[in-house]
Amino acid sequence: MENGKQVTDIYGQLVFSDKVMRERLPKDVYKAVHKTIENGTHLELDVANAVAAAMKEWAMEHGATHFTHWFQPMTGLTAEKHDSFLSPDSDGSVIMEFSGKELVKGEPDASSFPSGGLRATFEARGYTAWDPSSPAFIKDGSLYIPTAFCSYGGEALDKKTPLLRSMEALSKEAVKVLHLLGSKDVTRVSTTIGSEQEYFLIDKDLYMQRKDLLLCGRTLMGAPAPKGQEMEDHYFGVLKPKVSAYMHDLDEELWKLGVPAKTKHNEVAPSQHELAPVFETANVAVDHNQLTMEVMKKVADKRGFACLLHEKPFAGVNGSGKHNNWSIQTNTGVNLLDPGKKPAENIRFLVFLMAVISAVDEYADILRVSVASAGNDHRLGANEAPPAIISVFVGDELAEVLKSIEEGREFTGAGKTEMEMGAEVLPHIMKDTTDRNRTSPFAFTGNKFEFRMPGSAISVANANIVLNTAVAEALARIYEELKDVPEAELETKVRELLKKLLLEHKKVVFNGNGYTEEWVEEAERRGLDNLKSLPDAMPRWISEKSIELFTKHKIFTKEEIFSRYEILLENYSKTRHIESLTLQEMVRKDFLDGLISYTTAVAEEAAKKKALLPDSPCAIETHIAQKLDCLSGKILRALDKLSEDTKAAEEKTDALECAAFYQRVVLNDMEVLRSYVDVAESMIPESYLPYPTYGEMLFSLR
Ligand code: ADP
Ligand code: MG
Questions:
Q1: Phi-psi region of 238 (alpha: psi -120 to 50; beta: other; left: phi over 0)
Q2: Pairing mode, if any, of strands 449-451 and 322-330?
Q3: Rounded mean pLDDT of the chain?
Q4: Which of 141, 168, 445, 674 is most deeply packed, by most CB within 10 A?
Q5: 152 shares a domain with 8
Q6: pLDDT at residue 595, rounded to an integer
Q7: Cα–Cα distance between 660 and 603 in angstroms, integer?
Q8: In the structure, which protein residues have their CB atom closer than 6 angstroms to any atom of ligand 1?
Q9: What CATH number is associated with residue 266?
């Protein structure tokens, strides 16, 4: 820690936190803001004025000269436009101003953000609205105000608005069910999220030499290094000093911003790492994850690294995800997914558990869409990540509990048991009710679910919007079934309903190994979807079922659903297009040059040898030169095909057809081209290669 400071001294030092507000705001103003945050109620302008004044004072004391409304457009990144507090006075001097109106509302030009046809091009106006439930903070001399972003007509143009809507929908439905079950003191529930972020760190100089990493975030070619992750020696391994120093800086920067970074370790692949935060309310957690990604890159740059957030930067080793730990917490402090000591007797827990299982089964396809991106397509279904098939892992004990419900008998399991470690000196620890299952895309992990499909690069908002809404719908259905049941019969009826839901949805429960081929076949027999790519999955987003779900709970209007459909597909096609052009350029301009030079050099050697040793039967040089020459021919033909098909893709006007063509044809062309290039690369000395190899990139950090 710098200058002997404690973590507690720096934590949140750049955040306009609840504590700062309590110290600086008049009592009644503080109370009003607090009420808004707690209950999601509207904030009056006079209160906003008072908050703005205090915010400005505080921000200026911390060196800020500007403020910005910070929002999350549908690009999946964050956006900001900075205004200074400065306002000229009539006497030629300046005063520093910031009003309540400027705090609550901004009017950025929306015309250059994707809207998927929501906003006519002549109507450029967009609005940002302050989200008081996510704290403002200072970064690079500006006061950052988290906001939601919408069009002139009120349609959401961002990821935060629907997230907030989905949190409200879930709260509303959960409270109704809780009241039925006797928890009358609960007035609100919030979704909690802890999103573990995986990333790669590589040397910055090497990164700068690779056009594919610079332009696409992933390598488009590259022969595998002699060593990959097969030794399993990186996961949780000792941190290298440079990496450790990076993580130290990263923690410190995040802590200052009030991001509760908690755990750091090496991941499975070489050069891959993970950061996990302490969980927070969903919208704050999403904001903080965006900040985490940004700070990861910034600190990496300072320390001579490049931080790769792409889902699959290197072929052949694990990709990166963003495990979304998710639960529901009441305003009375109860985690509704905590089974307690005796899960079988905890009716409230069982109802919420069953609601989640039914929701995931019923809306598995829409959940699949929520994690679809060009990058994540490389990861889902590969050997490290969950397959594209969505299933739920509940663990042995809960599986037994569910079975007893299904069979209508008492659960006789023992709950937590003590673990036998065979050495008296070790402390006695209790076993958890669930083991870990690393292969499930949606695993119950003790008192929360862990959704493992989200990709490392994309905002985790989408996954949570869908999850919250699907669970809200499952709870709404449960409420409808139970609302008129007399209290005396409630427990019996709840058990009957749980049994019915279980029979209907148990096909999604799977406790085995999700990476095996048998599971793929078994899942097909069970009728579960296996939507392998984004273009495969997208039609489900605009299905009647999806539209009904989202419009019923007022998360998206039909127009908003279609706009997101267009944007996701367009984004997919654009990504593949850039990748194709980058690969073509790298091969044509850089790689072929090295290949030709080396082939020529070897051929010359062959000729020399022949002159010197005309009768020698060993003609290794000739052999190599011929093989490389033959590969050059294949590479040229594959290049031509890729180039032609990419042009054909450009002509496609229908968004889905275009994306599907990129996926089916162009991506395949890229793989074919790459396979020849990689073979050739493995035969060429590094001095002839125009860019660093996998081996250098993955193993050069000290
Ligand atoms: P592990 O997955 O290694 O067992 P933890 O269970 O401590 O580790 O937590 C993993 C992640 O889950 C952390 O980001 C943590 O904050 C988050 N988490 C823990 N409890 C909850 C909860 N109730 N809701 C959401 N996320 C949670
Ligand atoms: Mg995890």
A1: beta
A2: antiparallel
A3: 90
A4: 674
A5: yes
A6: 96
A7: 43
A8: 192-194, 196, 276-279, 325-327, 335, 445, 447-448
A9: 3.30.590.10
357-409 pLDDT per residue, tens: 999 999 999 999 999 999 999 998 666 667 899 999 998 888 888 888 888 77
Atom of ligand 1 nearest to the CA of 193: 25
Under 8 Å CB-to-CB from 157, ≥6 apart: which residues?
A: 73, 74, 110, 113, 115, 118, 119, 126, 149, 150, 151
Residues 151 and 211 in one domain: no
Q: How many residues are given for the chain?
A: 702
My answer on whether 238 and 307 are in the same domain is yes
CA of 323 to the centre of ligand 1 (A): 10
Helix (H) or strand (E) segment spanning residue 276 = strand 272-277
> What is the per-residue pLDDT across 534-566, written as a single tens digit (0 to 9) for each?
999 999 999 999 999 999 999 999 999 999 999
- Are 212 and 142 in a shared domain? no
Q: What is the CATH number of the domain that holds 589?
A: 1.20.120.1560
Give distance in angstroms: CA of 285 to centre of ligand 1. 12
How far apart, in whole angstroms, are the C-alpha atoms of residue 465 and residue 74? 14
Query: Looking at residue 197, what is its pLDDT?
Result: 97
191: enclosing H helix or E strand: strand 189-203
Same domain? 201 vs 136: no
Virtual torsion, Cα 20, 22, 28, 29, nearest 10 deg: 20
Structural domain boundaries, residue 277:
197-217+233-320
Å from CA of 279 to ligand 1 middle: 6
Count of domains for the chain: 3
Atom of ligand 1 nearest to the CA of 436: 4
* pLDDT at 238 (0 to 100): 77
Residue 306: phi and psi, rounded to 5, are: -115, 135
Residue at which a domain ends, from 109, 138, 157: 157
Cα separation, 665 vs 86, in Å, equals 54
Nearest to 196 by CA among 259, 275, 263: 275
Q: Residue 630: inside a domain, yes or no?
A: yes
Per-residue pLDDT tens digits for 466-516: 999 999 999 999 999 999 999 999 999 999 999 999 999 999 999 888 888
Domain end among 320, 347, 364: 320
pLDDT above 70 (res 177): yes
CA of residue 278 to ligand 1 center, whole Å: 7
Looking from the CA of residue 447, the nearest atom of ligand 1 is 23
CA distance linking residue 529 with residue 527, whole number of Å? 7
Q: Give a yes or no: residue 445 inside a domain.
A: no
Q: Are 152 and 270 found together in one domain?
A: no
| Digit-coded pLDDT (tens) for 644-697 | 999 999 999 999 999 999 999 999 999 999 999 999 999 999 999 999 999 999
The per-residue b/e assignment along 660-672, b for 16 or more CB within 10 angstroms, e otherwise, is bbbbebbbebbeb
Same domain (yes/no): 120, 208: no
Reported as type and span, the H/E element at residue 106 is strand 105-106
pTM of the model: 0.93
Residues 75 and 205 in one domain: no
